[in-house]
Every structure is written in structure tokens, then in C-alpha cells.
Amino acid sequence: MPQHCDKLDFELEAAIVIGKAGRNIPASQADEHIAGYMIMNDWSARTLQMEEMKLSLGPAKGKDFATSLGPWLVTKDELTSRRISGGAGERYDLAMTTHVNGTEVSRGNLKDMTWTFAQIIERASYGVTLYPGDVIGSGTVGTGCFLELNGSKIYDPAWWLKPGDEVVCEIDLLGRLENSVLAD
């Protein structure tokens, strides 16, 4: 849709898939509820978000047209060599990058998440039942979107996605997620 392509953005994230149902899950037990990990590109239509934020709604209607997941689900046992244990839940030392049309635009590491997935699960399950198959994103890695990069003046003029662009998100051991932007 035309407004979706006005300031269209990528968002480099990791995602988990819930493997065991639970409600009011404490962070100390939350990692047991994770079936696996995958790459998530949580595309955003920034023009629509900005219109709603003026109304104090937050970025509520960013889009419903795209959240890319994959290319496969990686189980926790496959990530053992990169696991960092801690009191607030497990972290993983996994480099994350995004390339647009062959140019690297984003680089980060999953271990640098502000909140662990265990903490996110604790919050998400507060008064809510999480079911097997539910997907929860990490939030965007630092420098993981054009909104942040453009706001930091890394790209001047601002860079936004347009039809024809190729977006490749990669996370160590989780694979390579490739998408093309196409007009509706």
C-alpha cells in the first residue's frame, strides 16, 4: 500500500517460540518455556506510526502486512556453545547483521539485549496464558532499523526502504532471512 512504503523500515530482531504453556511465569523458570529461536524482521511503516504517536496512541498501527520469520527454528541445545547463563535468564553471544541491497546497515549482538527473553516472558505472561507456538520478539537490536540510524544522522539524507530493495537479516547459528520489498 502507498502509505506502507512511505518511510518503510526493517527491524532486526531475534524471536522465540513458546514450547510449553504457562501463565504468570517467573523469570527463573521462563527459559524452560522456550522451544527455540529464529530471526525476525518486524517491518514498520514509520509514516503511519508517526501519525498515531501524535494522538498519544504509541506505534499501534505500524502495519499488519509483514513480519518475516525464519528461515528455521533453532532449538536451545543447538546454541549451547554460545549460551551465557545469568540470574535474569539465558543470553546468547550471536552476532546480528542486516544488509540492504548488499550494503551492511546494521550490526549488533543478541547478548546485548536490555531484557532477557526470560524477563520478557515473565512480563508477557503476567495475567496472560502463553501457548505453544506463540512468537515473542526481542525488540530491535541497537542500530537495527533506519529510524534509529537516520535519527543518529548516520544516513543523511535519510534512507528508507522502497520497492525493489533486498533486505537480508542474519544471526549467527540462526541463519539468513532474505526478503524483497514489493509494492501491493
Summary?
This protein has helices spanning 2-5, 27-30, 46-53, 117-124, 146-151; strands at residues 8-9, 12-18, 22-23, 34-41, 44-45, 68-74, 83-84, 91-92, 95-100, 103-109, 129-130, 135-137, 166-171, 175-180. With 184 residues, the protein is α+β, with helices and mostly antiparallel strands.
What would you note in describing this structure?
The chain has 184 residues and is α+β, with helices and mostly antiparallel strands. The protein has a single domain (2-176), classed as Fumarylacetoacetate hydrolase, domain 2, CATH 3.90.850.10. 16% of the residues lie in helices and 34% in strands. The protein contains 5 helices and 14 strands. The strands form 5 sheets. A 4-stranded antiparallel sheet has the order 6-4-2-12, covered by helices on one side. The chain has a 4-stranded antiparallel sheet with strand order 10-9-13-14, with no helix packed on it. Strand 9 (95-100) and strand 10 (103-109) form a beta hairpin. The longest helix has 8 residues, at 46-53.
SSE layout:
Layout: H1 2-5, E1 8-9, E2 12-18, E3 22-23, H2 27-30, E4 34-41, E5 44-45, H3 46-53, E6 68-74, E7 83-84, E8 91-92, E9 95-100, E10 103-109, H4 117-124, E11 129-130, E12 135-137, H5 146-151, E13 166-171, E14 175-180
Antiparallel strand pairs: 1-5, 2-4, 2-12, 3-11, 4-6, 7-8, 9-10, 9-13, 13-14
